[in-house]
Specification:
Length: about 270
């Protein structure tokens, strides 16, 4: 049975699936919550969808928010540790893509089982980071950035109290990104599949294509219509693509262990002998 801490972090919006079912950890965008994945289990019937709920929002609103990637990933690993023996993949949108990527590196660095595949959306390749961020040094402040990017319900933008509640969450989340000056010398060795929206000024196809440099394993990309926040048609393409990759029991991108994991197992077996 999941512990209370696991229930806080990992939201399951459907009945448990049989043991051995592929798991997909889903990471929300900055200012968002795991609720954005509430309808995914019904559309990914052969995949166990787990929405990762970061502190400081929704049912965790009163908890202290993370503003740095390191402590966030460290806490996430501790919560994940009991279930790392079960294969999983990760999907992340915008900020969530970077959290999933940082988690994959941290698990590998600790010689712990990591994701078998990484699905990323709405976040340019990490190697493109140059210390400048679209939300910083704006005359209209963070509120201007929120209005420019879209995706926030008009009812929130029109209500001062709702906007005042959102902005501190968003500020902490964006600080996770802007303070994470991480340029690993060794890329991952797991498949990465990117989703790029044609009209996304922040993470269009050219910037999403840079994710190919983050792995020595296969890279692929879907180009979608729309902007930074996917509409229903774009989201349907994302779900369909992930479902085909993870729902096929013969799919090597998910079931095959990474080279690093295979090497680690071999070393451990040699020690045991």
């Amino acid at each position: 049975m999941p512990t209370e801490r696991e229930r806080l972090w990992f939201k399951r919006f459907a009945a448990p699936l049989p043991a051995g079912t592929p798991r997909l950890l889903c990471f929300h965008y900055a200012g968002g919550s795991a609720g954005m994945f509430r309808h995914w289990p019904a559309l990914l019937g052969s995949v166990e969808v787990i929405g990762v709920q970061l502190p400081g929002r929704a049912d965790r609103f009163l908890e202290e928010r993370h503003a740095r990637m390191g402590p966030l990933v460290e806490e996430l690993i501790e919560v994940l540790r009991p279930s790392l023996g079960q294969p999983f993949a990760c999907y992340g949108s915008s900020m969530g893509a970077r959290v999933a990527w940082a988690l994959a590196h941290a698990l590998r660095d600790r010689q712990l089982p990591g994701p078998r595949a990484l699905f990323v959306a709405a976040s340019g390749g990490p190697a493109l980071d140059d210390g400048s961020w679209l939300w910083e040094d704006r005359e209209d402040g963070l509120e201007g950035y929120v209005r420019e990017m879209g995706g926030t319900p008009p009812s929130v933008l029109a209500e001062a109290s709702l906007l005042a509640a959102l902005l501190p969450i968003l500020e902490a989340d964006l600080s996770v990104l802007s303070t994470h000056d991480f340029h690993p010398e060794v890329p991952l060795d797991i498949p990465i599949h990117a989703f790029a929206a044609e009209d996304d000024a922040e993470a269009g196809p050219d910037r999403m294509r840079a994710w190919r440099n983050e792995t020595t394993a296969p890279f692929s990309m879907d180009v979608l219509s729309g902007g930074h926040f996917f509409d229903s048609a774009a989201e349907a393409t994302v779900i369909d693509s992930i479902g085909r990759a993870l729902g096929d029991p013969s799919a090597p991108t998910f079931l095959a262990p990474s080279a690093a994991e295979t090497e680690s197992r071999s070393m451990n077996e040699g020690v045991a002998k």
